[in-house]
Amino acid sequence: MTPRVVFPNKILPYLLVAPQLAITLVFFYWPASQALYQSMLREDPFGLKSKFVWFDNFKKVLADPNYINSIHVTAIFSIATALLSMVVALILAVMADKVVRSRNLYRTLLIWPYAVAPAIAGMLWLFLFNPSIGSLAYALRWMGIPWDPLLKGDQAMVLVVMAAAWKQISYNFLFFVAGLQAIPKTLIEAAAIDGAREFKRFWTIVFPLLAPTTFFLLVVNTVYAFFDTFGIIHAVTGGGPGKATETLVYKVYNDGFVNLILGDSAAQSVILMVIVIALTAVQFRYVERKVHYG
């Protein structure tokens, strides 16, 4: 019988986890509790008067057509951004994994865009596709495509999705490359000897073994699309035109910091937090069942 391992110092384990607990309390639980408290207050724009209204702010927000529109916009934007960034990153990772000469150079060049700040990434794409001065916008008009994301909501959505996905491709690429390197080459070589073509080898061997990496990136990209794309949307479209690209996180900013509707903004932030936690829980509850850890 294996003897039970007993930690000799009873206080040291608590001291080791104390910094992480302090960080979690200060930077998550405390702001979350303050947001929940403020979401039940009705305040004037200057914060001089406040009234406790319980859940009236939530009822007002959920009955607002503009907020319902933001939910639809966020759903389309987050799904499109996550899928586009992950698919392109997987294709690039598979291609880079086949390179023999200058492999590290190619990987470094593909990782560099992740160092670009979200606002800078948004401005880069805005300059490229600006209907007045953008070089790629000029090429689209030359091909007969009436491109104007400043006036057309669907084109503005396409632009912010491409900018947000481009910013995240490098992050996804890094993890996919690491996942591909962890796959034993002997399995792929054995399948090739048995006559399996490259496409079949990928879908029957490589992709299933990448399931843990893919699941992790699915969760990360969902959170990224909900929260970390604020700078891109703010720089490219500002939520327009006609609220066509106003996501949930941007509406929180617009109502709270621009229009100074503090109670509604706090209620929206609480709803957004609940949505993201629920999506993450659903992913771990149902999607992870398809993941096999070898």
From TrEMBL:
PROSITE patterns per the UniProt record, alphabetical: ABC_TM1 (PS50928)
Biological processes per GO annotation: transmembrane transport
Keywords from the UniProt entry: Cell inner membrane, Cell membrane, Membrane, Transmembrane, Transmembrane helix, Transport
InterPro entries: MetI-like, MetI-like_sf, UgpAE/MalFG_permease
Database matches in CDD domains: TM_PBP2 (cd06261)
Alphabetized Gene3D superfamilies for the sequence: MetI-like
Domain ABC transmembrane type-1: 71-283
Bilayer disposition of the protein: Multi-pass membrane protein
Residues annotated as transmembrane: 12-32, 71-96, 108-128, 156-181, 202-227, 266-287
Pfam hit, one: BPD_transp_1
Top-rank lineage group of the source organism: Bacteria
Main localization, broad class: membrane
One GO location term (cellular component): plasma membrane
Keyword Membrane among UniProt keywords: yes
Record NCBIfam families: PRK10561.1
Alphabetical list of PANTHER family matching this protein: BLL4140 PROTEIN (PTHR43227), SN-GLYCEROL-3-PHOSPHATE TRANSPORT SYSTEM PERMEASE PROTEIN UGPA (PTHR43227:SF9)
Function: Part of the ABC transporter complex UgpBAEC involved in sn-glycerol-3-phosphate (G3P) import. Probably responsible for the translocation of the substrate across the membrane.
Similarity comment: family membership: Belongs to the binding-protein-dependent transport system permease family.
Record note on quaternary structure: The complex is composed of two ATP-binding proteins (UgpC), two transmembrane proteins (UgpA and UgpE) and a solute-binding protein (UgpB).
Name of the protein: sn-glycerol-3-phosphate transport system permease protein UgpA
Protein source organism: Mesorhizobium denitrificans
The encoding gene: ugpA
